[in-house]
Amino acid sequence: MSDFLIIGGGVIGMMTALQLADAGHQVTLVDRGECGKEASWAGGGIVSPLYPWRYDAAVSQLSRWSEGVYPSLALRLLEETGIDPEYRQKGLLYLNVDDADKALQWARQLGKPLERVGADFVHAKEPGVAMADDSALWMPTLGSVRNPRLAKALKARLAAMPQVTLKEQCEVSGFIQQGGKVEGIVEGVVTSQGTITAERIIVCGGAWAAQLLSQLNVQLPVRPVKGQMIAYQAPKGLVQRVVLKDGRYIIPRADGLLLVGSTLEEVGFDKSTDEAALASLKQSAEAILPALATCPVAHQWAGLRPGSPTGIPFIGALPEWSNVFVNAGHYRNGLVLAPASTHLLVDQLLGREPLIDPAPYQLTSERLIQA
User: Fold this and answer.
1) What residues does the FAD dependent oxidoreductase domain cover (predicted)?
2) Does 281 share its domain with 135?
3) How far is CA 86 from its chain centroid?
4) 43 and 161 in a common domain
5) pLDDT tens for residues 73-83?
6) What is the CB neighbour count within 10 angstroms for residue 85?
7) Distances (CA, A) of 351 to 225, 354, 355
8) Rounded to 5, what percent of the chain is helix, strand, coil?
């Protein structure tokens, strides 16, 4: 029997497993498909909420802590696995920001570098970017990570750790329960590969977390929200840093691939792509960087975000099952918040002093019945 069973092998589940294994615990991680191939793979990899000043303080606390972790985490994984997550800190240019004064006030309060800049500054940084007006915002500390490679590196590190058992293509179909609510415990799970037992269960199922927990009669208000993205194969250096305009962004990779995202679609668990989204994303991208009109779109894909009512994730113990814990509902910021949210949960699991106040993230009855 493992000390911990983690359900869900995205970056949340894998970072949780890594921290528990680092602390000397036996961990089993199961995923219904392949580790890191759902929302963790599908996103863009910006290590910040898109407009961080528009979020609740509970999200900002997690994002600020996580942002400082990624440089060292990327170096660690590169050294341990030989796989480079490609962390890049080139800053972000915000175009067409209609609440710039609020953004600057937020930055001053937190001591965050953010400044108003003009067209000359933008064109010096990114000569190919088109500006509709003479004002933009510049955040020099923002970084990004190549999330598919981050997930690949995390999986490789976990596979090499003797304390960790990875089970892919292993779908959970039920919980093994002893007793009932309030005083009950979950002894393990029934899966497509047989029964797995553990002392404590951690649900990190992303958009599928609510489906899993419904088997324990827990109504977690997490739903799938589809996002479609595209990628252009462009000459290296066409754009060097993240550029954001009207909620759409361009993210450069070291090999010239330029990611563009993303849509927000309430269509259940549908991950299909369509021509309307392709046209909309192309229009947004080429309005930011006109030279993309001559570049081919190399890829189009979709992923499912774990949407929650306020974007504040659910992190902590289930109130009615003493050994079941949850880390889910990060909406658009799963990768952004992963280092802090997993550290916060592991603090609780191991009885350590939490890095921040866990209260805003707890699974209270008030939060669970929101819809």
Assistant:
1) 3-347
2) no
3) 16
4) yes
5) 999 999 999 99
6) 24
7) 34, 8, 12
8) 35, 25, 40
Rounded mean pLDDT, 268-278 = 97
The H-or-E segment that residue 276 falls in is helix 275-288
* 275 and 155, same domain (yes or no): no
* pLDDT tens profile 35-51: 999 999 999 999 999 99
Residues 349 and 218 in one domain: yes
Q: Which two tokens stand for residue 216?
A: 């324990």
Provide the pLDDT for residue 134: 81
Cα separation, 40 vs 36, in Å, equals: 5
Please state, rounded to an integer, the average pLDDT across all residues of the chain: 95
**Does one domain contain both 102 and 214?**
no
β-bridge mates for residue 6, sequence order: 29, 202
CATH number at residue 227: 3.30.9.10
Query: Which residues are 299's β-sheet partners?
Result: 231
Any bridge partners for residue 117, and if so which?
Answer: 136
Instruction: Examine the domain organization and report whether 156 and 208 are in the same domain.
Output: yes
Please state the length of the chain.
Answer: 371
Predicted local distance difference test score (pLDDT) of residue 135: 87
CA–CA distances in Å: residue 49 to residues 61, 185, 278:
11, 36, 23
**Residue 320: domain span:** 2-55+149-222+309-369
Asked if residue 339 lies in contact with residue 15, where contact means CB atoms within 8 angstroms, the answer is yes
Distance set, CA 87 to CA 47, 310, 345 (Å): 9, 28, 24
Q: What is the pLDDT of residues 158-207, one digit of tens each?
A: 999 999 999 999 999 999 988 765 567 899 999 999 999 999 999 999 99
The verdict on residue 365 lying in a domain is yes
Mean pLDDT calculated for residue range 5-13: 98
Reduce the DSSP state of residue 233 to 3 states and report it. strand
pLDDT of residue 366: 86
Give the three-class secondary structure for 122: helix
176 and 295 assigned to the same domain = no
Residue 61 CA: distances (Å) to CA of 53, 110, 226, 339, 344 = 12, 10, 26, 12, 11
Which residue bears the tokens 């293509």?
169
Show which of 307, 341, 358 is a domain's final residue. 307
Q: Over pLDDT 90: what percentage of the chain?
A: 92
Kindly state whether residues 203 and 315 are assigned to the same domain: yes
pLDDT band at 371 (very low <50, low <70, confident <90, very high): very low
